[in-house]
Model the fold of this input.
Amino acid sequence: MQRLLRVDAVFERHGAWYIGYVPTVPGVNSQERTLKQARASLAGALRELAEMDAQALTGSHRRIEQLSVQFESRTP
Done:
């Protein structure tokens, strides 16, 4: 049975590399020279995880919380 998974992915450019990750799925990331390659690599990593442990994609092993942090600002 085929299923469709939709997630929010983040892609950042660092020098000559594109880094991609899925904030809600720890450990799933990619690093490639082009954005197109990073997308394909990230999709492949998600597919592999889903085939090995689909429950890891559902959030049953994690807790997502919002944190507040106080800090001293060095700029006025």
Summary: The chain has a mean pLDDT of 85. The longest helix spans residues 35-52. The longest strand covers residues 10-14. DSSP finds one helix and three strands in the chain.
